[in-house]
C-alpha cells in the first residue's frame, strides 16, 4: 500500500518533471524560428493600437484570437470580414465605428462611443491587420470570411 | 475555536460575502444585457460589468482563502497568529484595493486584459498586500509547534499563487506573447495552485468533520495535488491551441488536459470515501454538505464540463464562445466558491459560539444555490452549443446568432434568481451567527 512518503515523492517528483517539460516547451514554442505571429511586422502603430485596445478594455465585450468577452463579434479577421461586406471598404467602416460620437448599435446591441481621433483609429486598424495575419493553427478558417462565404446577408 | 487570533477570519469572510453580493449584481446586469435589456449601458457598459464581475470573483475568493488560512493555520500549527493587528491592516488594504479597482473600471481605468484588468499601479499594491499576508502566515507556521501536511499544502498554494501573479505584470507588445503569459497566471492559478488551496481546506475539513486519521487523509491529499500538477501544468496547453503558437501544444495540451478530470475525480472519491469511513458524526451537517458538495460539483463543473470542450478538435469550434462560460461558472462555483462556503459554515459556529447547525435556512441555501447554478450552467450550455452550430457551422452572422439565443438568457436569469435566493439565505444565516466572541474559545482539557 502507498505510504505517505511515497505519496509526497509522487507529488514533488511529478510536479518538478512536468514543470521542467513545460518550461522546455515554452522556450521551444516562443523561439524566433517558431514564430507564427509575424513579429517582425510589429510597427509602432500596431503597438499603439494594442495599447488603445487594452486601455479601453475592448476585450470586455469582443474576443480576439478567441479570447475575451462573448458579447460582441470576434475581431481576429475583422478587416477581411468587413472588406467582404462593404466592398473593400472594411477599414473605413471600422474607423467610422471607432470615431463615432454616438453608440454604434447593430441589431440594438450598443457599443461604447469612443469618439477616437483619426490617428487613434488608424492605429487600432493597424493592430487588427497585424492580428489578422497570425497563423492560428486552423482557427482562422473558423472565423475568417472565406469560411463564412455562405452568409445570407 | 482554539486560538483567539482565529477570529480575524470572520472579517475576511464578511468581506467575501459583501463582494459576492456585488459580483452577483453585476452578473445580473450582464445577463439582462445579453437578453436584450441594456438600459444601464450609459453608466455601466458591458465591458465594465464584465471586468467587475470577474475581478470581484477573484477578490472575494482570495478573501475567503485568506480567511480560511487565518482560521486554519493557527489551529494546525498550534500557535496564535503572530500579529492580529497586521492581519486587520491587510484586510482593510485588500478591501481598499478592491474598491479602488472597481471604481476605476467605471471610469475607463483598467488594463483591459481578461481576468487581469486591475491597472498596473494597483497591481503593486496587491503584491504588497499579499506579501504581508504571506509574511503573517509563514511566520505563524514557522513559530508553531507542529507543521502539518494540511498547513504546508495550503501555504504552498497561497505562496505559489502570489508568485504566479508576477508573469501577468510583464508588458509585451505582441498580443500572442501577452496572452501566453496571461495564462501562466490565470490557468496555473485555477487549474494548479488554487487546487492546492482547495485541497488544503478540504483536508482540514475532512479531518475535523469525519474523524478519519490525519495520516490517511494527508496521504491522499498528496496524491490528489500530485495528479493536479501532473495534468494541470502541461494542461495549460489547451489555452495555446489557437492563439498563434506552435502546434506542439495541440498534442501536449490535448493529452494532459484530457487527464485533468482525474484529479477532480480523485478529489470527489476521496471526500466521499473519507465521509463513509469516518466514525465521528460531527453535528455540523451544513459544513459537511458544502464540503462534499464542493468535491462533487467541482468534478462535474471543472472536470467533466472542462473535458467536454478541451480536445483540440472540439475546441476549434467552441474557442471564444459561450461554451466556455458554461464550464467557467460551474467550475468556479464547485471548486472554489463552495469550498469557501464550506469553511465558513464550519468556522462560523466555532468563532461565534452560536451552533446553528440544523437550520432549514442553511439547507435551503445549499440546495437553491446549487440548483440555480446548475440551471444557469445548462442555459449557458444550450446558448453556447446553439452559437457554435449557427455561427461556426452554419456560418451565420454573430449578431443574428445573438438574437436567436437571447431566450436562453431569460432562462439564465430565472435560474440566477434561484441561485441568488440561495446566496441571500446563506448570508442571512451568516449574520444570524453574530460576531465572533472570546467566549467561544474551547479550553483545552
Order of helices and strands of chain B: HHHHHHHHHHHHHH
The main sheet of chain B comes to: none
Per DSSP E runs of 2 or more residues, the count of β-strands of chain A stands at: 2
In total, the number of domains of chain A comes to 2
Oligomer kind:
heterodimer
Could you give the topology of this structure?
The complex is a heterodimer of chains A (about 150) and B (about 450).
Chain A: H1 4-29, H2 44-55, E1 63-64, E2 67-68, H3 78-85, H4 90-99, H5 118-132, H6 139-143
Antiparallel strand pairs in A: 1-2
Helix pairs in contact in A: 2-5, 3-4, 4-5
Chain B: H1 8-34, H2 46-77, H3 84-106, H4 120-143, H5 149-163, H6 175-210, H7 214-235, H8 248-277, H9 285-308, H10 312-318, H11 322-352, H12 360-393, H13 398-404, H14 406-432
Descriptive tags:
heterodimer; A: 153 residues; mainly alpha; Cytochrome Bc1 Complex, Chain D, domain 2; two-stranded antiparallel sheet; B: 445 residues; Cytochrome C Oxidase, Chain A
Can you characterise this structure?
The complex is a heterodimer of chains A (153) and B (445). Chain A has helices at 4-29, 44-55, 78-85, 90-99, 118-132, 139-143, and strands spanning 63-64, 67-68. Chain A is an all-alpha fold and 153 residues long. Chain A has two domains: 1-34; 37-143, Orthogonal Bundle (Cytochrome Bc1 Complex, Chain D, domain 2). Chain A has a two-stranded antiparallel ribbon. In chain A, helix 2 (44-55) packs across helix 5 (118-132) and helix 3 (78-85) packs across helix 4. Chain B is mainly alpha-helical. Chain B has 14 helices and no strands. Chain B has one domain: Cytochrome C Oxidase, Chain A, CATH 1.20.210.10.
How would you summarize what this structure contains?
The complex is a heterodimer of chains A (153) and B (445). Chain A has 153 residues and is mostly helical.
